[in-house]
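User: Okay, second chain of the day. Same drill as before: sequence in, structure tokens out.
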Amino acid sequence: MNAVVEVGMTLNYVVDSTCTKYRDLYAIGMAMEEPITYGVFHKQILALALKLQKEGIRKGDHIAILSENSQNWGIAYLAIVRIGAIAVPILPDLPESDVHHILNEMQVKALFITQKQIEKIYELRNELEGIIITLDDYTADISIVSVITFATFLAEAITAYDENAEDPVFPMVGENDLASILYTSGTSGYSKAVMLSHKNLTANAYAAADLMDIPSGSVWLSILPMSHTYEFTCGFMLPLLCGGRIAYAGKTPTPAILQKLCAYEKPFAIFAVPLVLEKIYKKRVMPQIEKSAVLKMMCKIGVSRKLIYRKIGKNLLKFFGGNLKLMGIGGAALNPEVEKFLNEAKFPYLIGYGMTESSPLIAGGPSGDTTIAIGSAGKPISGMEIKIIDPDPSRGIGEISICGPSVMLGYYDDKESTDAVLTHDGWLLTGDLGRMDKRGNLHVCGRSKNVIVMPSGENVYPEAIEHKLNTYSWIVESLVVDNNGQLEAWVYPDYEFIDDETSGVSRAERRQYMEDLMENMRAELNQRLSKSSRVTKVFERREPFIKTATHKIKRYLYSGHAMLG
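Assistant: Same drill. Structure tokens below.
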């Protein structure tokens, strides 16, 4: 049986056409497990959609998904939008209070959840309407909330679907209809509910498909949360569009787990946040060079450094299974030193820049373009216009503004915030600062809200200083803040490194070691910075910074001396 044919750039049309075209190819599954084919995937989506409809879910209803990645997550999402309902993906790392806020504001008619998340809704058990379905088939011995397992729900759906003599009838869904509402976990505090249409999401996926040649049957290892637009569009819709097979990691992608999964799956593509590459660079690449005086010396010479980096790059490709053709890097800025290594190592990476409000990709690649500048986000994607508002006369830096088919409809129930960023003629003010170079590359310099204006009147971009701090092997992450006109840096050290270096010494000696390390680093760092950008003090932070889903530090939580760990 076939679904009602959807016209235009809806998610439903994309799924129907791709599942017909690649019917017998594998589509989706957990890594190192048997996947399901596009044909089976399609049938499960349609059957589940019909079942949701029979449960009373209607076009325009809000259905939440609070879950870790799995093929069931994808089936649930696509079944929701099939009937014109609105999917509300919730980041699994959000605290209980945020989950309560979202579920209360959205007034969801059904909820897909997992065992890891279910405690977050216990306090809402008397307020939640509709069915609660456990995507991981969790059933509690002592049930605080009444649930039905996904396996049971889907089995009932398949039976009803098979017994249905006629094609299922679903509401007509248009490309401009609302498909999803996503809550940002931004760096500037207040979380907004971004409304994305079917066309927003499909236009972005089609534009991403233009960045390189993607063969059908290629394997995509998914390690980022599907509830974030970066992974949803680039790691879910894009491979489905091209007939790829998605393999979900199912675990936190530590280097050891990543290596094991890659050895088995031999992925064609992985989308990652910079933190993944930066960890591998610090833990696997730099130690090889640092422990050899000869290699350290050779790396100071351009030609020999490139030869060494290319050899390390080949080993890095083996680490990722030996078949990697695309490492998409986005969600936050990549450290320039790490990108320089990846470039000279001939590692197959592409930097992307985007935001939830643009579904998310704005610029990136394209693959093979030799005019892409190191440190830039590449070229605007197909259909996306970029202009720089009020550029600084000397450096050309201004606010990045964008226009295109993947720009959001607006913020849910928040006209004031929508009007503040969306102009009447469809331009979105990103709040990011950047410049375009002569070759059409977008260079992102930081958030406009983060710029520190020094007493001299000079603008300082703290992200640029943090990148330099984070190149030190003993620093995991850092944050630069303004304290009464002086720049201070907070660093979260790599305590494994500190423990190794101070093994067998007293607490007082360890304390002195840390103080000397920070002060020597500060003096060395300041030699690499302009006078107005120099750091006056460095403080040790004893616990990680609180971060967003894409590992950007929530800067609004930290100011001045409010950061003692």
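The mean pLDDT is 92.

User: Thanks, on to the next one.
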